[in-house]
């Protein structure tokens, strides 16, 4: 599955390729009309009578991709309690492995690379949500072990007020970040824990000429960047970045736009001049889910424009293009850089090098602290 991208119409294509193509759907495509919604509500009420009124899912961090807004919307509209969960993609997969004999969660959200790994480890129950046919083949496992709902782009999230205090210019390129004047001004989360952080270091590899078999360009760049790093937080650095404790955070563009437009923070987004990558995020049904009826119905709902429109309010681009309103898209404008310079990659090959690259990062980058 190859991921390519031009996010102004998003991108991607091909044979075994994870395509992010807005044109893959008819404009405004949906299967969740009034009749379907009424049937959904009826089925959900019946499921509640059997399984109760609470759904447990993993990796539902409120500040990430508007999970807080999505769960609030779903609970208020459909009456199902669906609490947040602060696990990352990596710790969610670890929890599912540890709980295989007695699963606690019924649905799980992941960075696509981690979700694909989890599927390969047998942690998911195949399920094809309603509207399956509307999802392009590149955005779903053919057996229903996962399906993508949206994607982000790796960017520099800049707290402008914090950076102004340092008297250094706004970085426009990956090459800027390794300059001595950016010492103790940059951060990315621990990529062995946070899925988006892994995509940040993968992007550093990819734009510097690395390959699936040659990790050296990425590791060498990250070693040069290391003296300028404030921290490799195991928890998300969203709030420290918003507060100005981290002037430059390597993360999803949507996180920066959310800080700027929702939190009213002094934040801008930069797409680095050498290029970047996009990363999809997916959902899956947990194998042995304790509430399978509720889980399946919720996955059905997540594959609707209604759900993806709520996600899109946090500036992650939905797989259903009709869910991205012109008002939201108009706010997704970087201070510097362009979405035209997105580097393609093959997701399946990327998944196979995840563990090796993390190991190299731990041994050669993190241990140097």
Shape: globular
Taken as a percent bin, the fraction of beta residues is: 5-15%
CATH architecture annotation name of the largest domain = 3-Layer(aba) Sandwich
Portion of residues within helices: 25-40%
| Low-confidence runs of at least 5 consecutive residues | 5-29
The largest pleated sheet is described as: 9 strands, mixed
- Write down how many β-strands occur, each being a DSSP E stretch of 2 or more residues: 11
Gap from first CA to last CA: 36 Å
What's the number of domains?
2
Provide a descriptive summary of the structure in words.
The structure is a single chain. By secondary structure, the chain is of the alpha+beta class. The chain has helices spanning 34-51, 67-78, 89-98, 112-120, 160-166, 174-177, 195-207, 216-225, 238-243, 253-261, 292-302, 305-312, 326-330, 347-364; strands spanning 2-5, 57-58, 107-111, 124-125, 147-159, 186-187, 248-252, 267-270, 278-286, 317-318, 342-346. The chain has 2 domains: 2-151 and 280-329, Periplasmic binding protein-like II (D-Maltodextrin-Binding Protein, domain 2); 152-278 and 349-368, Periplasmic binding protein-like II (D-Maltodextrin-Binding Protein, domain 2), CATH 3.40.190. It has 14 helices and 11 strands. Strands 2, 3, 4, 5, 6, 7, 8, 9 and 10 form a 9-stranded mixed beta sheet that branches. Strands 1-11 form a two-stranded antiparallel sheet. Helix 4 packs across helix 14. The protein is globular.
